[in-house]
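Hi everyone,

Forwarding the result from last night's run.
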Amino acid sequence: MAIERAAWGTTAQDEPIELFTLSNGDLTLRVMTYGAIIVGIDSPDRHGRRADITLGFDAAAPYLGAHPYFGTLVGRYANRIANARFELDGITYSLPANDGPNCLHGGTRGWDRFLWKPEAGTVAGEPAVQFTLASMDGDQGFPGTVSATVAYTLQDDSTLRVDFGAVVTAPTVINMTQHAYFNLAGGGTIEDHTIQLLARHYLPVNVKLIPTGERAAVAGTPFDLQTPTRIGDRIHAPHEQITRANGGIDHAFVINREDGDRELRPAATVIHEPTGRRLDVATTQPSVQLYTGNFLDGTLAGKGGAMYPKHGGFCLETQHFPDSPNQPAFPSTVLRPGEMYHETATYRITVL
């Protein structure tokens, strides 16, 4: 078990960025103070050969520019809010429209664009680092000041545990997630990965990628991932929803659980048979957004100068439903003073 702390560049305002490296058993996690971003996760394959199984960059500077949310901590509201506005307690709030007419991942300066305050240590003897951020009232148009936390813990069973927390000074909406891109092969595309999602329903989207409000059954569609399925066999299916997502999946899947159940439940398993790597994801959240890297196009240079191709990574973003502030039939994401937001996601990385 080890925790290392090092300087890792500066922001555009010359504020120092720090990189934390946590090691425990087979896993090594690298996470930085800018955006509470996961920079890398090193994991062995079945032959003991190690590789970084996440997409991103080798230095801090590229994260300061435009990129597709590699490894970011997303907030104040993950995913899309339709028409960049919502109503709460009779007041309409306008947000930045940074995804066509919609607000995506918290706006033009979401929480991935802030320096977070770190505190490293151990939790039950396991290495951990917690980051805190104060998001002021009116930040990106959202009401209320938010005191947010995210804690990354490397557990003894090769699990990365992520705990999200927040308290507020006024009613607001909160939906935090981790946006790591995984590729269990360590390179190439993810088409030869197999995935299983414990979800009987998914949320279809309109042409602006906003949920229509329907909870559609996955049965009989390319979105039926209830049994292990090769990703490449589904992302090229001739289906309107696949086309809308730019030739792939970018949809929220409703995790099988009873109404009101907030326990940590299994959600997804991804396996890369050639390397033997296996990723198991569990969450307390009602949904997981599966994104299959549909907007990667081979023009973005990442780690080691690799050009990330279309479908070069996948995300399993544990979260509440997209656009919940505008859809009363969806689970509420409203957080009020005196309440505490707390959600957990776990990523267990093992070898077959």
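The radius of gyration is 19 Å.

Cheers,
N.
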